[in-house]
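From the methods appendix. Each design record in this collection lists the tokenized structure first, followed by the designed amino acid sequence. Records were kept in a plain field format so they could be parsed without special tools. The example shown here is representative of the layout used throughout.

RECORD:
FOLD TOKENS (362 positions):
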């Protein structure tokens, strides 16, 4: 028994349809063989038309009866504006060329102006009229666009808590009448770390206290701690300090401009070592005075390489008053009673600190 094909004879358009499908397949994969076939692109509001014969407009008959091929792509979504050129629509087409270099895809960027930094520090108001009294600068950590740590339950921001604590300490010290006081910031503003202790040095402060709140991602850590500068950070910072060109009046009023680099480095190192010892003594003193008033960590005195503590000639400490991530700690340090307890602890430590230094000076 023989078998034979009983279907219809191929239509006369079979070859052309096969060619069109092959053409489209080659176009989508970016075949370079088509580079000479589509030099013309027309675009309007509704369509993008590709002419694979060098002619524009609809497919037209040629002298030999041959027809050029035009491929029309309907635009969906946002229509291309009328009068758009082929140069404008090329980036939307598949990645192939028409014999000429394809225009690179447009790149977009967002730019925000950054305000220029001030060449001069804006010095804050100093509370207290007696210039013979020692000056204490209180630094409320963070501020402005830097919120600091944020409480996980109530969204309380460290920058707000530290500012309220700093103002409470200022008021307590002013009432004592034994020292002058200045705040690095009295409102919600951003100050870079170097400017914080730079303000204190410009004011020739005798003590610098930076107020912060601690935070941990998880757990129930609690208690206050006091940080001073570490030994390693001191050596590195003193080396940078000695390398500066303008060394006049940089360490405790001593002009180092006429000294050699080696001698300047030694003087800076000796001064900073004395400053670090004074800072550590005040940290231990603050912890002792705070323990009856404020929940403190058992090992409250810690050392770290903190930029805000790197003034070489001014005792500096960073007081982590408690954990803002712990609801119990946060409620205490941000309450009137908690702020008063912290301020009282600082005032007692400041009184003893300067009484000791006065006794040693005599």
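DESIGN:
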């Amino acid at each position: 028994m023989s078998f034979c094909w009983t279907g219809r004879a191929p239509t006369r358009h079979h070859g052309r349809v096969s060619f069109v499908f092959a053409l489209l397949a080659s176009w989508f994969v970016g075949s370079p063989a088509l580079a000479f076939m589509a030099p013309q692109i027309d675009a309007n509001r509704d369509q993008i038309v590709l002419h694979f014969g060098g002619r524009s407009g609809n497919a037209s008959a040629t002298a030999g009866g041959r027809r050029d091929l035009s491929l029309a792509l309907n635009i969906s979504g946002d229509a291309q504006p009328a009068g758009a050129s082929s140069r404008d629509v090329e980036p939307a087409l598949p990645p192939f060329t028409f014999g000429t270099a394809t225009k690179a895809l447009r790149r977009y960027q967002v730019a925000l102006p950054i305000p220029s930094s001030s060449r001069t520090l804006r010095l804050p108001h100093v509370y207290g009229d007696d210039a013979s009294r020692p000056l204490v600068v209180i630094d409320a950590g963070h501020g402005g666009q830097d919120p600091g740590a944020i409480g996980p339950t109530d969204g309380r921001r460290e920058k707000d808590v530290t500012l309220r604590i700093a103002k409470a300490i200022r008021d307590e010290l002013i009432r004592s009448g034994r020292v002058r006081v200045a705040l690095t910031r009295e409102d919600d503003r951003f100050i870079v770390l170097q400017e914080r202790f730079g303000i204190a040095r410009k004011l020739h402060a005798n003590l610098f206290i930076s107020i912060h709140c601690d935070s941990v991602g998880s757990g129930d850590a609690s208690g206050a701690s006091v940080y001073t500068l570490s030994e390693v950070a001191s050596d590195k910072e003193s080396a940078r300090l000695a390398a500066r060109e303008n060394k006049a009046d940089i360490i405790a009023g001593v002009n180092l401009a006429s000294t050699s680099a080696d001698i300047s480095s030694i003087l800076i190192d000796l001064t900073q070592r004395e400053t670090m010892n004074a800072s550590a003594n005040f940290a231990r003193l603050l912890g002792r005075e705070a323990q009856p008033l404020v929940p403190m960590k058992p090992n409250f005195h810690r050392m770290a390489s903190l930029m805000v503590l790197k003034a070489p000639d001014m005792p500096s400490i960073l007081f982590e008053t408690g954990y803002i991530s712990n609801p119990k700690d946060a409620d205490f340090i941000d309450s009137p009673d908690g702020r008063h307890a912290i301020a009282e602890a600082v005032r007692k430590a400041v009184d003893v600190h300067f009484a000791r230094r006065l006794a040693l000076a005599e």
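APPENDIX NOTE: The mean pLDDT is 74.
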